[in-house]
Amino acid sequence: MMNYEDYQHILFKRREPHVLWMTLNRPDVLNAADARLHTELVEVWKTIDRDPWVQAAVVTGAGRAFSAGGDLALVENAYRNPEEVARILDEARDLVYNILHCSKPVVSAINGAAVGAGLVVALLADVSIASEKARLADGHLRMGVAAGDHAAIIWPLLCGMAKAKYYLLTSEFVSGAEAERIGLVSLCVPHEELHERAMAVATTLATGPRHAIKYTKRALNQWLLQAAPIFDHSLALEMLGFFHEDMMDGVHALREKREARYTSSGE
Asked: Which domains does the chain have, with CATH numbers?
């Protein structure tokens, strides 16, 4: 079990009334998750869950992004590497379930781009608040792998199957305003009001009836946990992609900032 001092890429600040403010802190790479930050994102929910001082948490990103998702070096290292793929599978699974099982209410303040693993945290928070500058995308298809991580467990429930299929199959970005309109996030607010609004919501949660909030969250999350077999299936299918040339086609295109040409498309 990790303690707060063990975290290298997440900053913590205690704010009254019993709100823990968490900032993903790799701003030079848009808070992309390298192997260390990915592990920290998995473990942090257990750390705050066992902290008796914390009654609500806010998570946001340093700089101009929430999180640009998984570091490409992490993905490249896993290509056709069974042991690394197995490790990523376990962490990706634990990330989702650890957030869902965290008894403390979590608010995400989505201050900019949120992709991949960052989007998992942004959307699985109990209350998700997007800035008007936020841009959300699952991004898996762009990288040549199936939409695993969190997508199958929550997108159809939040925005319906038609919108979920459109955005997941195209990897198109969703603006903060559009994300609110289709129900993907709870709220969209002007950028300069984001942190204030997130803190106001977290304060309401931290000062509300503690047991009632915890048990309401637990009951509502049963909707998501019913989809656990679907999620586990999607995650396994995503991992299959780590053994196909399409994934590296996507990685190279992202590095070179161009449209990808996938081996399986025959072009």
From this structure: 4-265 (3.90.226.10)
